[in-house]
Protein: Carotene biosynthesis associated membrane protein
Amino acid sequence: MPAVRTPRYDDGWRVVSETAVATQRARVESTLERVVEENRFTIAVTFPLVGVAMLLAGRAELIPAELAMNPYLLIGANLVMVSPLVAGLVPLIDRRAAIGLSVLALFTWGIELAGVLTGLPYGEFSYGVELGPMLFDLVPLGLPVFYFPILLNSYLLALLFLGTPSLLRRFVLTLGIVLALDLILDPGAVALGFWGWEVPGGYYGVPAINYLGWALSGSVAIAILQFSFDHEAVLARLERCGFFLDDLVSFLVLWGLINASVGNWIPVALSLSLLVTLLASDWFDFNVLGT
Structure:
């Protein structure tokens, strides 16, 4: 006959403990969601506009560079703008997703270290502005804070337009959006002196090898994402969470205006195209954003 398991005293404690953790997590998720929901316009529009003003003022030496390019201020502002993405994603983080994002963070640091040390896959480049604590004095420790939003927003936008059935189509579209966002980001970052290449390229100072590198690293990163999340659950969350892609709005406003200020018109056109596409979609809620 099968063995009968005798209940142990700590079984009840474990259930109580797990319930308490779940309750606390639900409270945190609810609070974060409420804060983001109540401050959508400030986060998605006001913060990037203030960021543009400060960065351009620093570039024109109207305010001290120590203020305009303060690494902790940059990271803090980025964390505020990325808060809608975090609030939207947190309820979806289970053990598999946590492991996947951890692997992705390690990959992000590893590929960037390889790029700085060998020039591959992005070409010979270096950082011109301190972006917080540095890993081995070579790459920013907070790099995932800047890289994850590009990747995750691209994944969410592809999921929004394609749904979940075709992994290959979703993969290709996600990679295409990642490359489009980097076509916007890198020229603006070069103009501000955030980073640059030893031999500047023809695309506003950015060499073609950088985009080949992004195609390679982006493919690996997207593959990690594909195995990290329940895509049906992400799509369901995306469809009922009106602020999930607000960080993408912030990104396009910020870097679109930065590029416009220096006459980088192709990145400006890309920013406007993606912004109009997003805002014109049936999914986006204008009223909640306050526009």
User: Anything to note?
Assistant: The longest strand covers residues 125-127. The mean pLDDT is 90. The two ends are 69 Å apart (CA to CA). The CA atoms of residues 17 and 23 lie 10 Å apart.
